[in-house]
């Protein structure tokens, strides 16, 4: 979708506030006071039934009494009065409307109908609508504050679906010495969406980092495109709630349960090139490093500490975070020697015993590490930032050293992050670090985690779907039909057939060879194992016949289902790793594919990766390396590594199937046995939409 013109919203020459009041206990009172404080920046007009005067400005009793062209109209009146306020504001030429009022699409079908009528009227007049049910907006350069509170100035632009969460972010930003260029609360996204606002921020010159809190984009594909467009221009950092199983919706397969909405959202954001975090605190920490513009290169870190313990702990945290402690060359060690009194040059380097007279040694060591080809970033840990407490002169020296370290980082083009035990004190040194953009944190794990955010995910180019054979599905496809559909995609299965009697079960075993597995077949049966519908290792026709009869009775008693029969299938070779691969049609983003640790404990282990479909198998194979269980796939305890490429190709084909067949809601193979020689499907399920 093309970028919408939001100039009238963020840079209006004239504003109209409908619902002005001097009562700052009310929302309209905050905005009224804010507009009054900036009336010298733009023509400002107030409307309220009370009339009179507020902050030296006349208050009109009706919008029609305003004799002026309006760029932006802000509406803070009870819901029944909003439609008329919109109509009259548009009559004054308003090109942007901010509707703070709630009580529309978020409350009832009737409210949604009114909301849609408002948007239709605004669009017909060439205007944009932010809200309704929103917190407002803010632009630092023009001092436009439709929120009414205060925001710190900075270089982050923030879009949010939660107004109050944005207030927490603002407080955390201020503590970190950061702030906002622009802010917009999208509310119901009746017209302007999170995607629209992100696009505007991406092209806003004063913004260095684009941020957003997202719950449910209105148009998933457009949202992904907007994030991808923004990430190509500047860092994008996003966070969303509901990442735990508590937020998952019931579904007809393991894939449906595991591919919860927020997980899909996070995968979409990752593939679009955004840094994805979990909490407001992590969000602000990520902004602190991303705004520096540095990258992480090969992720090799040098550590400078003023105590042995700090160095050891920092090294542990760096390694556990997936970064690498740099292996220093002899040349780098020699460059460090002049800045050390007694300790040997190493990584981590220990300045234990340093006093105020050695403050410039911090700069020398940091610069030597930054200059090294084998170092991509530097972490400082310990008391640095607090040496001014030793002696009055030390504070001035430490400030100079801080400036020199920041200059060295800029000149070398590599990041430096600092953990200082003095950070909460907000002394002169800590304030200087924040003023000049040198990220400083109170805890080492916080500093290192923020550093890892510089490893921005690459923008993944959307893939084209591979052709899929035409298929016709029954209303409730059971395993035999699902197996046939997936086999037509080139996915291998062991030989087998459906038996509808004990005698047929014995005959199939004789045909495919022992040992075999018996699987109960019924479209309604999701968890066959729980109902006693799976039996393994059957070796003779006689046992197959007996097991058939017992299984039919057992499943009918446990699940109350009449079986369509029992599938008799040659058991695959033992060994390898059992995985789950699947695809689900997400209501916002469309088809997504999933790969994870499979078997009967798939939801308990909860170790999966997701990607939007269609997707490149090479991308899926790379994502598999992020699974917690990847060491098993890579060949633990002398086992041969499994063929991850084969797994990825199968998962990608499931995505192709959903792209080609809109009537399929979910498809899953569980387990998919992955070995060094490929992968074979041992069970499958297809669920239609609706």
Written overview of the protein:
With 690 residues, this protein is of the alpha/beta class. Helices cover 36% and strands 21% of the residues. The chain has 23 helices and 30 strands. Strands 3-4-2-1-5-6-7 form a 7-stranded mixed β-sheet, sandwiched between helices. Strands 9-8-11-10-12-13-14 form a 7-stranded mixed β-sheet, sandwiched between helices. Strands 15, 16, 17, 18, 19 and 20 form a 6-stranded parallel β-sheet that branches. Strand 1, helix 2 and strand 2 form a beta-alpha-beta unit. Helix 3 runs parallel beside helix 4. It is flat, with a radius of gyration of 31 Å. The two termini are 29 Å apart. 51% of the residues are buried.
SSE order and pairing:
Blueprint: H1 7-10, E1 14-18, H2 27-37, E2 43-47, E3 53-54, E4 57-60, E5 72-75, H3 82-91, E6 96-99, H4 109-124, E7 128-130, E8 137-139, E9 144-145, E10 153-160, H5 163-175, E11 180-185, H6 194-202, E12 209-213, H7 220-231, E13 236-239, H8 254-258, H9 261-271, E14 275-277, H10 280-290, E15 300-305, H11 308-320, E16 324-325, H12 330-336, E17 349-350, H13 359-371, E18 377-382, H14 392-412, E19 416-420, H15 428-435, E20 440-441, H16 444-452, H17 479-488, E21 496-499, H18 502-512, E22 516-521, E23 534-538, H19 541-559, E24 565-570, E25 577-586, E26 590-597, H20 602-605, E27 608-612, H21 617-624, H22 630-633, H23 644-660, E28 664-675, E29 678-681, E30 684-688
Parallel strand pairs: 1-2, 1-5, 2-4, 5-6, 6-7, 10-11, 10-12, 12-13, 13-14, 15-16, 15-17, 15-18, 18-19, 19-20
Antiparallel strand pairs: 3-4, 8-9, 8-11, 21-24, 22-23, 22-24, 25-26, 25-28, 26-27, 28-29, 28-30
Helix pairs in contact: 3-4, 5-10, 6-7, 7-9, 10-16, 12-13, 13-14, 14-15, 18-19, 21-23
């Amino acid at each position: 979708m093309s970028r919408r013109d939001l100039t009238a919203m963020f840079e209006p020459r004239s504003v109209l506030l409908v619902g002005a009041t001097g009562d700052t206990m009310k929302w309209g009172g905050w905005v009224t006071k804010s507009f009054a404080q900036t009336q010298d920046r733009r023509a400002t007009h107030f409307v309220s039934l009370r009339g009179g005067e507020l902050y030296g400005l006349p208050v009109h009793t009706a919008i029609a009494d305003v004799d002026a062209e309006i760029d932006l109209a802000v509406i803070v009146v009870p819901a029944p009065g909003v439609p008329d306020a919109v109509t009259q504001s548009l009559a004054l030429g308003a090109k942007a409307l901010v509707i703070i009022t709630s009580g529309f699409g978020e409350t009832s079908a009737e409210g949604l109908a009114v909301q849609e009528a408002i948007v239709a009227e605004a669009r017909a007049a060439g205007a944009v609508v932010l809200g309704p049910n929103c917190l407002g907006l803010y632009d630092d350069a023009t001092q436009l504050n439709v929120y009414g509170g205060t925001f710190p100035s900075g270089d982050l632009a923030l879009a949010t679906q939660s107004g109050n969460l944005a207030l927490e972010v603002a407080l955390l930003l201020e503590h970190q010495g950061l702030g906002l260029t622009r802010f917009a609360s999208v509310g119901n996204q009746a017209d302007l969406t999170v995607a629209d606002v992100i696009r505007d921020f991406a092209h806003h010159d004063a913004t260095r980092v684009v941020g957003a809190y997202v719950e449910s984009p209105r148009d998933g594909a457009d949202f992904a495109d907007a994030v991808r467009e923004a990430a190509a221009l500047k860092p994008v950092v996003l966070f969303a709630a509901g990442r735990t199983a508590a937020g998952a919706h019931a579904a007809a397969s393991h894939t449906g349960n595991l591919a919860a909405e927020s997980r899909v959202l996070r995968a979409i954001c990752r593939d679009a090139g955004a840094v994805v975090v979990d909490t407001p605190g992590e969000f602000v920490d990520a902004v602190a490093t991303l705004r520096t513009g540095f990258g992480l290169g090969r992720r090799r870190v040098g550590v400078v500490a003023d105590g042995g313990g700090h160095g050891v702990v920092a090294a542990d945290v760096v390694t556990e975070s997936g970064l690498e402690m740099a292996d220093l060359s002899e040349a780098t060690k020699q460059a460090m020697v002049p800045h050390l009194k007694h300790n040997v040059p190493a990584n981590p380097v220990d300045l234990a015993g340093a006093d105020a007279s050695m403050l410039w040694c911090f700069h020398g060591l940091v610069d030597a590490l930054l200059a090294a080809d084998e170092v991509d970033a530097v972490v400082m840990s310990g008391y640095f930032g607090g040496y001014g407490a030793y002696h009055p002169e030390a504070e001035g020296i430490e400030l100079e050293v801080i400036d020199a370290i920041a200059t060295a980082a800029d000149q070398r083009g590599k990041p430096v992050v600092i953990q200082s035990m003095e950070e909460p004190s907000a002394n002169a040194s800590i304030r200087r670090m924040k003023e000049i953009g040198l990220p400083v944190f109170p805890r080492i794990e916080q500093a290192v985690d923020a550093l890892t955010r510089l490893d921005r995910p690459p923008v993944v180019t959307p893939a084209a779907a591979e052709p899929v054979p035409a298929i016709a599905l029954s209303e409730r496809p059971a395993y035999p039909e699902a197996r046939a559909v997936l086999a037509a995609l080139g996915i291998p299965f062991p030989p087998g057939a459906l038996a509808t009697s004990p005698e047929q079960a014995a005959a199939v075993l004789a045909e495919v060879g022992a040992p075999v597995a018996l699987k109960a077949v019924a479209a309604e049966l999701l968890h066959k194992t729980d109902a006693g519908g799976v039996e393994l290792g059957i070796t003779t026709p006689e046992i197959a016949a007996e097991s058939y009869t017992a299984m039919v009775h057992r499943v009918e008693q446990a699940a109350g289902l009449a079986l369509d029969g029992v599938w008799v299938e040659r058991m695959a070779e033992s060994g390898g790793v059992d995985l789950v691969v699947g695809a689900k049609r997400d209501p916002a983003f469309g088809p997504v594919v999933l790969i994870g640790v499979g078997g009967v404990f798939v939801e308990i282990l909860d170790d999966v990766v997701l990607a939007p479909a269609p997707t490149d198998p090479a991308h899926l194979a790379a994502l598999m390396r992020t699974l917690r269980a990847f060491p098993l796939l890579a060949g633990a305890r002398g086992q041969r590594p499994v063929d991850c490429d084969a797994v990825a190709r199968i998962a990608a084909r499931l995505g192709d199937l959903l792209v080609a067949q809109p009537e399929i809601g979910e498809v899953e193979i569980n387990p998919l046995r992955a070995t060094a020689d490929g992968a074979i499907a041992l069970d499958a399920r297809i669920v239609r939409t609706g």
